[in-house]
Amino acid sequence: MAQTRPMKKALRYAVPAAVAGAAVATVGLVPALASSGGDPDLPKITAEELVAKIAASDTQRLSGTVRITTDLGLPALPGVGSGAYGGGEGKGGEGGEGGADPRGKLAELSSGTHTLRVAVDGPDRQRVSIVEKAAEYSLIRNGDDVWAYDSATDTVHHTVLPRDAGHGAGHGKASGEAPGGLEKVTPQKAAQEVLKAVDATTAVSVDGTAKVAGQDAYQLLVKPRQPDSMVGSVRIAVDADSGVPLKFTLTPRDGGKAAIDVGFTAVDFAKPAEDTFDFKPPKGAKVTEERLDGAGAGAGKAPRGDGAKGLPSGLDVLGEGWGSVARLELPGRGPAAGSGALEAAPEAQKLLDGLTDEVKGDFGTGRFFGTRLVNALITDDGTVYVGAVTREGLVKAADAADEDVRAGGGAR
Asked: I need a labelling partner for 32 at 20 to 30 A (CA). Which of 63, 77, 162, 281 fits?
């Protein structure tokens, strides 16, 4: 899909073997919301005009409540979706899987229903809070400071973003995005990424109107035409006045209920209060410091760069449009490692076999992991192909990549 840019940024922090997390990072968090009230009577508008209205929207200030329901058909994998709300490392634990480090938080939204509070005031000030019954996780960006706080573990993760090149230290504007990708849960950002896929491989139409979060909205219907896509349709409700996307429902090609249903239950386009983006670590909380500009991370704190040890260093995107497939190599594996690279401990191999099916192609053999929307193929040499495409689409991508390697004289 045309979501390759955010997919690359999100997957750089994902452990490839955790296919559930890769699934969420690949699809992105696309917003959807049940309509409320009757369908409003709005002036006629064409699909081209509605897409242009979204693109021209300059709304950068809003706040509200977002509800996310995800049903990818994922099995209950150990450690997936637990994080701060299902196990973690306990109070005072280090940042990371059980602490405040934002990397991996997207995987916790890969199943079930979650409530988020969001606030946006321009490109450099955002706040996203995941609210649960017994805990809250907040990610706050204010300029070049990014704070993440996990109340379940009483841990704080502080990241300092790099500044634009050409400005001396302490000057200029913070560049880059907050780690973890949670700031992309706002409906307008997710919808903008999906609309980048609108081309000759896509059918787009206006499909009526709706009342969403108290706002009059048009409904834009997007349907992929590529046969290997797992996406059946995407429905976006667009605020009739501002052009801000308020609703986005993604339904798999096999039908049934939405695979991802995320969106506003309440929205306010007024400027959020100034103190919304202020944060100070609670007394007694364990704070982990990180600088993404390579500067010193403080006493006893080593800069972590783009990720932790063992994460993928590169990601290729194969194909175009809705049939795009991400290709990456598991750490220490890949074509150069030989055909036995995917061998694992007996317990891990048994789990892998139980969750996957054997697949064969010109590329060799591998294991296929499928969900309602995102599928993955892990070849025996340790190469992973993942995307919102069918099993056949993944095999074709692996065969094509293998053919390119052979044509180039490389070892498979």
From this structure: 77
Structure confidence at residue 27 (pLDDT): 39
Handedness of CA 34, 36, 39, 41 (dihedral sign): negative
What's the CA gap between 6 and 184, in Å, rounded?
Answer: 9
Q: Are 213 and 33 in contact (CB under 8 A)?
A: yes
Among 325, 323, 314, 321, smallest CA distance to 401 is for 325
The per-residue pLDDT for 178 is: 62
**Residue 178 vs residues 39, 365, 378: alpha-carbon distances, Å:** 38, 38, 29
For range 321-345, the mean pLDDT: 68
pTM for the model: 0.73
Location of structure tokens 């019954």: 133
Q: pLDDT at residue 36 above 70?
A: no
Note the pLDDT of residue 103: 75
Sheet architecture: strand order including 245-252 = 202-212, 215-224, 231-239, 245-252, 260-268, 61-71, 111-121, 125-131, 136-142, 145-150, 155-160, 286-291
Distance CA 131, CA 154 (A): 15
Structure tokens at 333: 């594996």
Q: How far apart are CA 137 and CA 120, in angstroms?
A: 17
239 closest CA partner among 261, 280, 209: 209
- Give the position of tokens 């929205």: 267
Query: Three-class SS of residue 33?
Result: coil
171, 163 Cβ separation under 8 angstroms: yes
DSSP label at residue 8: H
Strand partners, 127: 119, 140
- The answer to whether the beta carbons of residues 21 and 80 sit under 8 Å apart is yes
The larger pLDDT score, comparing residue 223 to residue 166, is at: 223
Q: 218 vs 190, which has greater pLDDT?
A: 218
49: tokens are 């005009």
Going by C-alpha positions, the residue among 102, 3, 14, 10 that lies closest to residue 312 is 14
Q: Please tell me the predicted confidence (pLDDT) of residue 259.
A: 92
